[in-house]
Design goal:
The chain has 629 residues and is an alpha/beta fold. The protein folds into two domains: 366 residues, Glycoside hydrolase, family 3, N-terminal domain (TIM Barrel, Alpha-Beta Barrel); 201 residues, Glycoside hydrolase family 3 C-terminal domain (Rossmann fold, 3-Layer(aba) Sandwich), CATH 3.40.50. 34% of the residues lie in helices and 10% in strands. The protein is built from 21 helices and 17 strands. The protein has a six-stranded mixed β-sheet, sandwiched between helices. α2 crosses α15, α12 runs parallel beside α13 and α16 crosses α21. It is globular and about 95 Å long. It binds alpha-D-glucopyranose (GLC). Alpha-D-glucopyranose binds next to loops.
Amino acid sequence: MAMGRFAEPKMGFVVLLLWFMSGVAGAEYMAYKDPKQEVDARIKDLMDRMTLEEKIGQMTQIERKVATFDVMKQYFIGSVLSGGGSVPCPKASAEDWVKMVNEIQKGALSTRLGIPMIYGIDAIHGHNNAYNATIFPHNIGLGVTRDAELVKRIGAATALEVRATGIPYAFAPCIAVCRDPRWGRCYESYSEDHKIVQMMTEIIPGLQGDPPANSMGVPFVAGKTKVAACAKHFVGDGGTVKGIDESNTVIDLNELLSIHMPAYYDSIRKGVATVMVSYSSWNGHKMHANRDLVTGFLKDKLEFEGFVISDWQGIDKITDPPHSNYSYSVQAAVLAGIDMVMVPENYTEFINDLSSLVKNKVIPMSRIDDAVERILKVKFVMGLFENPMADFSLANQLGSQEHRELAREAVRKSAVLLKNGKSDNQPLLPLPKKAAKILVAGSHAHNLGYQCGGWTIQWQGVAGNDLTTGTTILTAVKNTVDPSTQVVYESDPDASFVNSNNFSYAIVVVGEVPYAEMWGDSSNLTIKEPGGSTIGKVCGAVRCAVVVISGRPVVLEPYVAEMDALVAAWLPGSEGQGVADVLFGDYGFSGKLARTWFKSVDQLPMNVGDAHYDPLFPFGFGLITSGSI
Ligand code: GLC
């Protein structure tokens, strides 16, 4: 083509066109960015482009506190989490959360290949880290309902509230089968009976959406109103000796597979996107280093195709003392089949150690590729590449009235009526709404933090009424009784006070204070003092309904005989109105124990079906009443 001193005008157009086309051609078509491509094709295209550093970055999950833009970009970080209580600011709004998550995401998207990061959080009874979120009953109460459809609705509501804050991944459900209530996490378990836990895995399609038929093992998340779920903690976390958290589950393979494994079958069948490994050991073998179970069983036999994530510093605890040989921890965990490591702060050490192990051929590249392919599959399936940035469109879902009504329904259905009337008189419940004067007493009557329990706003929970929004049981009673009824509140009244006031009846609310994980391990299972003495003083003077707020069955003797009525409300969460709904008979009691209520801790462990079974209240027990609504 003859070019004049200056390209003629028509030539100028041609040159411009060629430049434009070269520019577009220079952009190069990238299949992994094309949502019209099959997921497997997108994974292969992206994997072929990735360096070892970029692959290891995808396997690295760090805590939000260290997740700066530069760290995300420099280390190609694939995931970030909020640990318990780790929030953008105190009482953060949905908008505060979205802005924080988006800022971190921008760092991930600024990398060479622009792979979006996935942000995870413990939303285990609603979006429990978030101020003003709906706090649902903990799993121990939900198991009592035996209502899979209810739990699915709770999953859907939780997904909306988590997405309202810009987060697409929840470390839930815990599908532990707690076999000893001395375990500090027993309230995170739906039941001692694996069949109830299996039923409750219906929360997974609530959280993620309903998977396509015949998609066994394939992770599924149905878009921007759903979240990736996490079945945890694999496997046998609820079976440790004496319920000691993170310790050793000593049972044979048959018991492991028949008690602790069944809910994983259901979870995988329902398309769970991720599985978290347990801190505990099985017969002395750390689960975080157990290749036979993580790879051999979960991935190969159950054909799980999502990704396996470690617990918080879970790989550190492979060695004793923890972190005493971190390179070995990395080697053992990754070779066992862990795909993503919840580091969560010493990420440079993790990245450097893993890089060295691969370069020295201790860990084969094929293991790295398997891990990254699984992580990318979840990210592609859930649409994270198409929608990496959150928006404010769901902000009004956080703590919505609709969700609070759902939680209130769950509170009603999770309450168990264990006693109603003494031998010599009539049932006390339902309580009359119209009475001259009633007493509400007990350490847990007006304490939102107590009724929510652990994993609420803070990892260990928070006492008092300022932690978030909700309705205490005292407020619920006041909301329910006739306006003419005088309600007197005394946390721990003297017997003389009770005797001299001529109360029509009393409601006494006592129980456990909040705890999480190993901080809840207990060898005595007693309730917070002055719980027992309050019962004695009040019930000795007036007809009383005792409501127990606890994360598990607790020691109730010798007080049961003094009670006219006894209700187990577990950890009901923010919507205490549900307790009043059944106390005053608007709704009937329907709950049946999903755990054995022992007489004495000396009997433990004691589960339904055991040869020696002598409970105070047996598994499946609950008095049923009808409601007026
Ligand atoms: C905790 C828990 C686990 C939780 C994780 C992240 O230690 O064991 O259930 O998902 O760390 O907070």
